Amino acid sequence: MKTTAKTWLKRIHNLNLTEKVKIMNVCGGHERSISMAGLRTALPDNIELIPGPGCPVCVCPEEDIYQAIQLALHEDIILVAFGDMLRVPVNVPKGEVRSLEQARAAGADIRPVASPLDVIALAQRESTKKIVFFAAGFETTTAPVAAMIAQGLPENLFVLLSARLTWPAVSMLLDSGEAGFQALVAPGHVATVMGSEEWQFVIDKHAIPTAIAGFTAQSLLASTYSVLRQKIEGKLFLDNCYPELVRANGNTAAKRQMSEVLDVIDANWRGVGIIPQSGFNLKAAYSQHDARIQFPSYDEENRRRKGKMPPGCDCASVVLGKKYPNECVLYGQACTPQEPIGPCMVSDEGACRIWWASGVRDSSVKS
To answer: Which pLDDT tens digit goes with each residue over 169-203?
Structure first.
């Protein structure tokens, strides 16, 4: 019989924890589960849960979104993207189109999709039109995109890829010496694709307790208990608290398809900068479907605040675990889900949006 969340919580409270411990949860899905279940308020006061860089919409390069907007406005195409991407703002002068949603209102043919299967179906239906798929996301989104490409694309379908790997951002934080956390809860869905062994470096290189969690309160509390016990006892190991789906090697078929069609490259993370070997690009063999090659570039070197977060926005600090969402001066004031300024207030995986949805309005409150 599975251990209940109540039992895991009791075990955590019974631990002899004599110091404050900050635990980073990498995944936006984890942050949503933690906030909606009220786990922060249920844990002992000396345990601090920090949201991390696991929101692909939040870190998608501003210049990639700008390119998608300009393609949709100026080329004879249908642009498709996952729904969250439509409302993410870019840094342009007042009065200019600042999101895909605004571009659609201005007459561009932009359509939200839920999966690559929707994209293929649209390309087949609209066979006389050029379709550009703005594909942003982490490994769990990139794997089905890679499978779509590997299986062969219709001639009229092009991919504007803005995909990222999760672990290099954590590695960058740890290598900086300013990580600000003493334990890590790694994302179960990413590990399902890439394998649990991908997170072994956190223990081997940095001696930080690590566990992989699913998305239930039970799994998250089990992983919290695991990393705390590892820290107390000084016996570190990579604990898989999501054994229902996660294996050491992950999904070998998905990883093979990704390696067949994609190259791993240095990549920009919005507001953070270039993280080595943290992104994907289509291999040269698929250049006929690469939107960056097949369409004009709308990159403008002189565009104001290119690549940065909007003025006053602390989203970069939030995704790096350096600030809580409600510590941003814009949170709940100028920046709300109805009128987001920063990308963290747009996506359901963005920490600001999650905290707002869970009822946090006061800067003194922790979700």
So the answer is: 999 999 998 889 999 999 999 999 999 999 999 99
Q: Is-contact 185 213, C-beta < 8 A?
A: yes
pLDDT bin (cut points 50, 70, 90) of residue 365 is: low
264 pLDDT more than 90: yes
Give, in words, the CATH class of 5-54+173-241.
alpha beta
Domain layout of the chain by residue ranges: 5-54+173-241
Q: Give the type of residue at 133.
A: F
Cα separation, 282 vs 156, whole angstroms: 17
* 139, 193 contact by CB (below 8 A): yes
Query: What count of residues does the chain have?
Result: 367
pLDDT band of residue 302 (cuts 50, 70, 90) is confident
- Residues contacting 6, CB < 8 A, separation 6+: none
> CA 227, CA 236: separation in Å to the nearest integer?
8
Tokens of 187: 């994302």
pLDDT, averaged across the chain? 95
Q: Kindly give the residue spans of alpha helices, DSSP state H, lying in the chain.
A: 5-14, 28-37, 39-42, 56-59, 62-74, 100-105, 116-125, 139-150, 167-176, 188-194, 200-206, 217-233, 252-261, 291-294, 315-319, 351-357
SS3 237: coil
Q: How far apart are CA 199 and CA 197, in angstroms?
A: 5
- 367's tokens: 């979700």
The pLDDT, as a whole number, for residue 1 is 63
pLDDT band at 94 (very low <50, low <70, confident <90, very high): confident
pLDDT digits (tens, 9 = 90+) for 51-65: 999 999 999 999 999
Residues 68-100 as b/e (b if ≥16 CB within 10 A, e otherwise) read bbbbbbebebbbbbbebbbbbbbbbeeeebbbb
Q: What is the pLDDT of residue 199?
A: 98
Q: What global pTM score does this model have?
A: 0.95
Answer whether 297's CB lies under 8 Å from 61's CB: no
Taking the C-alpha atoms of residue 14 and residue 9, their distance in angstroms, rounded to an integer, is: 9
